[in-house]
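call fold(seq) -> tokens
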Amino acid sequence: MSMHKLSPYQRASCILLGLETVHPEHDVISKVRFTMESLSAETIQRDKCVEDFFNLLKVTKDYPITPFLEKMVFTKTGPDLLQATLKVMDYLTYDPSFKNLQLLLGQLDSTVIDDEKFEKLLINFLMKKSEDEGFGFCTELVSVLLEKNPFIQIKKILEFCHDLYQDDQLRLLKKSYEHFVTIGSEAPFFAFLYQHLTLRIFNDIKVVLLGEQKNLLVDAFSKGQVKSKLWLVSELSKLNNSGLKNALVLCGWVGLLPHLLFKAGFQEIISVDFDESCQSIALRLNKLETDMGRFNAVTEDIFNLNYKQLRLLQSQHDSAQIMDCVDLLINTSCEHIEAFDEWYAKIPEGQLVVLQSNDFFDCDQHVNCVNSLADFREQTPMGERLFSGALPLENYTRFMVIGYK
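ret:
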């Protein structure tokens, strides 16, 4: 499927899949993804849709009523449904009659009273109880129970929980859900994640998703791309790299690798890419470091750089120059460089480099793929090689070398 045909939920699901790999410690990311996918599936499976929603609700916050509501919604048989509903009511307000009813239910022979009669008994009981002072919520419970459309049922559950707890997280989740279902916008879900996890990348992605460059994120945050960059950071951390403070990332795309390198302790990074549409996204995804003068994204052809006297602007707003000496030069897109030998010859001897390529020949833009790690090593001669390895991925193998040229 071409990127321009992706629906909002498909774009967001691809990005969330990548972010799960970046932040595996936050299971709420996967729960949001599952929820979005089930809500947007071509064939709606009601139970799966509502189940994924409850899983998301549980990791949002520990709301005591959630397990009671979940059991009430998913219970099929009349007696169990009445029991589950009474437990919800018992939680909401103490009333001895609920306890008495539960005891009475235990003595009833469910083979005599069928499920349909039990359900009618429950609905009549709730509607009558809703007339009593302090039991207006019973009308909402009836509405939740009778609703057969999973989208509307989830909406009603969220409204019920929000009315009960008046919680900011529920308000954000409710707003995100309404936007997603009614107008097909995935961005509010990223705003919800930003508020819930206080990870700025979610808010920055939300802003990008509202812009014209949103399809760029799909490939950039694919699981293969993210795994390759995490592999780079991991292997680099195993080396004695305590003296590495800055990095020049060539073919830096939308700035995901700088985001990970800053997490690993780098102080200054410049990202260079020939595609001018990448610059605004990279600056947005690394906004904190950009504002601090620690990051810049530059639109430039890597063949035009003078690597022996490298001077690049620190920011768009001043003329300060940094990186007269580059600690680390990174290029994870060697498969895209047609005249690779010409470019590699521009790198000064003794420069520490991290290079990646792959064997994904099926991509038209991959004009310099290699068949094996041995071929990549031959293509990148070094004075001192610190690491070389291969990472098998779903559709291709990623190759990486680290060393001093």
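The first helix runs from residue 8 to 22.
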